[in-house]
């Protein structure tokens, strides 16, 4: 084995887990809104992350795409300002507001300067609480969404995910594109958007993370200004959905030189006691590094792909364990064969002591590096709250990783890896594969 | 040359100083005796560091016939040295809690690791090792060639927009290697071999052709000492060639291309014009073009979207783009994605009409003030990411610029006048220098 002399010393150092050096303050506004804050004054701006639990899955039957369209219109005119005036105002303040929607949440990411914080917040407040939904803005954004829907229909990476979701989730909102269809979007009315807004953006489902140049008192006051006018409660959350798959391949014929595949089956919930072990296991099987088994077997040894990954997807109402790979049409069958073998091997045998040790040093060492800037920190703070984690999680997380044993991994591998349910969806002209 | 007079106009908005703290305060530079440049960017908020080595060598420095070899070699640098087994570099980084990767562009190839600050020495030890001691075996490199071909499949062959871009760039450059894709033409990639990779490696990988950038929780003196220890002993390459690529002849005819593919769902028209880049000590024209792109298409309130998306509702998206960071002549681009029922021919005419009106009307000063204030604010926001600051310095120093150029750039942008923007626009919008491309579905043509 060729190693540097100094390597041994460094590995010994790595045995003591690093801690993330951040100090989180829990803040509650006079009006009762909670937030987590990391105060960091060296750069005169604040990063603010808001998440409203629910997201596109709150779309009512027949109104698919309503939440997405509603969120797309939040910055297209609010209060006294039409779309253009709103944009000019944001530019004049050099504030940035990003509005996004996922299956389980509406997210708002804001960044604003200390010197004009009050004005920036007033503008953001109007977007959140007083969107105008002007008809010309609705028409314009609808046209943009239709353009996206059409492009997605020709994009193999999107097609493959959609087909997998449709197979697994059926009529549940998770089973269809959150943009909706051309028809469902065309049918959405201004009233639908008002209803969606009232249902999705409510105080009973909001989570707040802030990092940067602001005190706890200022943040508390700001929360009531920003969110106080929102309704107390919103729409009911959707039902949970069971995931069941059968081993096999579904081919979606599409004329591209490289087949794109997604694979997976049921996963594990974020609050399951075995989640940590599953997370470490996945790092070894198909995490992002070149050391992961899938990367080693499919790419490094055989050159079958540029990238192959697996990842846990703990959604609010279902959990999946998924992976992705792309290979030329005449090589995808081999890539799938290798992935199946690795999946089975790990389910039966777990991992080696050496693999577990390297995964731990990587995961514990990499964790503090995530806290590298106000933006990333605000994001982590809001994510922790949505996952119902305590404030001191940042200090205990690495200990939880360290505590995972080889037996834990073996037990959890046998529990969550299901070769008998491992389903592949392949988009392309794969050779030697049939549905 | 700095000109500050024009700032007086913008001072109404900018009167409140945004921040006393600037990036210059955090940056220290050195040069090692063997010619390796060192840039240190201090950021002591978190105990982390990013370590990057940038080579002044990219795909545009390749010999004809071996397109993609710069990027191929980038992959092969992870395949071992006399001291490290294949894959061990990344394994060691990961075992130390870090992540690593690399990227190749026209003008540079760069390698980086993000790790806890106390692991910097180890990163340097390994990076210095592979600058000279690469050891490749024939098997490994064939497997890796398959990987880069799959990478091309994924990034290019499967995406008509990327294929269209390759065709436009090839038409844009009559003689300069920017017309060849960074990842390489497929027919040349499939026969790249060990000799091709090693020839490129020996020619370009040396300390006097490299820039070390370290950003994070470090002190400049510590970095210098470590750099001297690890990179200092590597001898300079005195045979390093001068960096001169084949240059463009006068372009005398507009090129028009139409790329048709059944996978195109949303047709659009895009035109790029050959444009000057940022040159050392001479960045005003590039600054004017940077602001022109913002004024024409940088945001919702800019000229093209306001007219075509908001007022006339004839476009789904319209915009303009320019990046002055390039060793040789770059491009200025405009794009129009027409609304349903508007043909590409009409979309092209719309775009040209709006630009012609703009050249007559001139720059809206209120809009320009907003843009300049946002650029000043960007100097505050960018301090939040030492990683992207590190990239900025690395890219600038491998694209022919100096540290002074990087530091002067924000003030040059602030000093640009509306007249300079219009003058730059009139110069750059020369159809003889342009490629106009239509991307459309194959069906549309057969109708």
Structure report:
The complex is a heterodimer of chains A (435) and B (447). Chain A has 435 residues and is of the alpha+beta class. Chain A folds into two domains: 25-227, Metalloenzyme, LuxS/M16 peptidase-like (Cytochrome Bc1 Complex, Chain A, domain 1), CATH 3.30.830.10; 248-428, Cytochrome Bc1 Complex, Chain A, domain 1 (2-Layer Sandwich), CATH 3.30.830.10. In chain A, 43% of the residues lie in helices and 19% in strands. Chain A is built from 16 helices and 13 strands. A six-stranded mixed beta sheet of chain A has the order 1-2-8-3-7-6. Chain A has a five-stranded mixed beta sheet with strand order 9-13-10-12-11, sandwiched between helices. Helices cover 44% and strands 17% of the residues of chain B. Chain B has a six-stranded mixed beta sheet with strand order 1-2-6-3-5-4, with helices on both faces. In chain B, strands 7-11-8-10-9 form a five-stranded mixed beta sheet, with helices on both faces. In chain B, a hairpin with a 4-residue loop joins β4 (99-104) and β5 (109-116). Chain B folds into two domains: 23-230, 2-Layer Sandwich (Cytochrome Bc1 Complex, Chain A, domain 1); 255-446, Cytochrome Bc1 Complex, Chain A, domain 1, CATH 3.30.830. Chain B has 447 residues and is an alpha+beta fold. Chain B has 17 helices and eleven strands. Chain B has helices at residues 7-14, 69-76, 88-95, 120-132, 138-157, 160-172, 186-189, 194-204, 220-230, 284-297, 303-311, 344-361, 365-381, 386-397, 403-415, 418-428, 442-446; strands spanning 27-31, 37-42, 48-55, 99-104, 109-116, 210-216, 255-260, 268-275, 315-322, 330-338, 434-440. The chains are: A alpha+beta (435), B alpha+beta (447). At the A-B interface, α1, α3, α5, α11 and β12 of A face α3, β5, α4, α5 and α11 of B.
């Amino acid at each position: 084995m060729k190693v540097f002399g100094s390597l041994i010393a460094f590995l010994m150092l790595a045995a003591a887990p690093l801690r993330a050096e951040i100090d989180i303050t829990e803040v509650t506004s006079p009006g009762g809104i909670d937030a987590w804050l990391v105060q960091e004054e060296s750069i005169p701006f604040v990063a603010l992350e808001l998440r409203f639990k629910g997201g596109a899955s709150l779309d009512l039957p027949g109104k698919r795409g309503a939440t997405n369209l509603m969120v797309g219109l939040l910055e297209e005119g609010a209060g006294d300002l039409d779309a253009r005036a709103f944009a000019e105002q944001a530019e004049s303040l050099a504030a940035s507001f990003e509005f996004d929607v996922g299956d389980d949440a509406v997210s708002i990411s804001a960044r604003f300067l200390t010197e004009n914080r009050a004005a920036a917040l007033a503008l953001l407040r109007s977007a959140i609480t007083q969107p105008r939904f002007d008809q010309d803005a609705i028409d314009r954004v609808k046209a943009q969404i239709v353009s996206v829907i059409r492009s997605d229909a020709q994009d193999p990476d999107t097609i493959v995910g959609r087909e997998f979701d449709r197979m697994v989730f059926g009529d549940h909102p998770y089973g269809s594109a959150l943009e909706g269809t051309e028809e469902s979007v065309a049918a959405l009315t201004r009233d639908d958007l008002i209803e969606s807004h009232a249902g999705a953006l409510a105080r009973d489902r909001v989570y707040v993370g802030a990092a940067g140049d602001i005190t706890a008192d200022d943040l508390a006051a700001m929360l009531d200004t920003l969110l106080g006018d929102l309704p107390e409660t919103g729409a009911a959350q959707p039902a949970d959905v069971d995931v069941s798959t059968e081993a096999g391949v579904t081919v979606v014929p599409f004329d591209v030189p490289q087949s794109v595949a997604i694979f997976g089956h049921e996963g594990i919930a974020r609050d399951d006691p075995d989640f940590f072990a599953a997370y470490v296991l996945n790092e070894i099987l198909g995490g992002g590094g070149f050391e992961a088994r899938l990367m080693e077997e499919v790419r490094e040894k055989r050159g079958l792909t540029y990238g192959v990954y697996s990842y846990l997807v703990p959604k609010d109402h279902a959990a999946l364990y998924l992976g992705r790979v792309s290979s030329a049409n005449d090589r995808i069958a081999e890539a799938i064969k290798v992935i199946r073998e690795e999946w089975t091997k790990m389910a039966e045998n777990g991992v080696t002591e050496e693999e577990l040790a390297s995964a731990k040093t990587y995961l514990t060492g990499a964790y503090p590096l995530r806290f590298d800037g106000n933006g990333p920190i605000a994001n982590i703070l809001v994510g922790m709250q949505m996952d119902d984690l305590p404030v001191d999680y940042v200090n205990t997380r690495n200990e939880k990783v360290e505590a995972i044993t080889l037996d834990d991994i073996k037990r959890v591998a046998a529990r969550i890896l299901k070769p008998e349910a491992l389903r592949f969806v392949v988009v392309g002209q794969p050779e030697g594969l049939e549905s | 040359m700095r000109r500050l007079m024009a700032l007086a106009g913008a001072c109404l908005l900018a009167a409140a100083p945004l921040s006393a703290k600037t990036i210059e305060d955090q940056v220290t530079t050195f040069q090692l005796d063997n010619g390796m440049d060192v840039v240190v960017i201090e950021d002591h908020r978190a105990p982390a560091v990013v370590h990057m080595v940038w080579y002044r060598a990219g795909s545009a420095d390749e010999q004809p016939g071996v397109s993609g070899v710069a990027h191929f070699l980038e992959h092969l640098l992870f395949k071992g040295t006399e001291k490290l087994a294949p894959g061990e570099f990344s394994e060691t980084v990961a075992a130390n809690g870090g992540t690593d990767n690399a990227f190749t562009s026209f003008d540079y190839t760069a390698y980086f690791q993000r790790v806890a600050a106390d692991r910097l020495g180890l990163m340097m030890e390994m990076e210095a090792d592979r600058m000279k001691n690469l050891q490749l075996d024939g098997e490994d490199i064939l497997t890796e060639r398959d990987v880069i071909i799959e990478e091309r499949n994924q990034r290019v062959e499967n995406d008509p927009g990327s294929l269209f871009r390759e065709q436009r760039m090839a038409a844009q450059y009559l003689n300069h290697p920017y017309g060849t894709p960074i990842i390489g033409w497929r027919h040349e990639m499939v026969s790249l071999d060990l000799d091709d990779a090693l020839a490129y490696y020996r020619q370009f990988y040396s300390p006097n052709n490299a820039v070390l950038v370290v950003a994070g929780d470090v002190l400049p003196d510590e970095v210098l000492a470590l750099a001297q220890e690890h990179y200092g002993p590597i001898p300079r390459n005195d045979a390093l060639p001068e960096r001169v690529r084949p240059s463009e002849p006068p372009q005398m005819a507009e090129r028009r291309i139409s790329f048709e593919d059944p996978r195109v769902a949303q047709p659009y028209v895009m035109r790029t014009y050959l444009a000057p880049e940022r040159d050392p000590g001479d960045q005003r024209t590039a600054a004017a073009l940077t602001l022109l792109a913002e004024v024409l298409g940088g945001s919702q309130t800019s000229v093209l979207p306001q007219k075509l998306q908001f007022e006339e509702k004839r476009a789904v998206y319209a915009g303009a783009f320019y990046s002055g960071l390039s060793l040789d002549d770059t491009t200025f681009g405009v794009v129009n994605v027409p609304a349903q029922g508007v043909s590409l021919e009409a979309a092209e005419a719309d775009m040209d009409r709006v630009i012609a009106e703009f050249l007559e009307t001139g720059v809206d000063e209120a809009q320009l003030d907003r843009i300049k204030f946002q650029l000043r604010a960007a100097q505050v926001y960018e301090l939040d990411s030492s990683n992207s600051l590190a990239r900025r310095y690395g890219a600038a120093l491998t694209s022919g610029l100096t540290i002074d150029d990087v530091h002067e750039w924000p003030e040059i942008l602030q000093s640009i006048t509306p007249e300079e923007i219009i003058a730059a626009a009139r110069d750059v919008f020369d159809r003889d220098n342009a490629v106009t491309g239509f991307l459309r579905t194959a069906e549309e043509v057969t109708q």
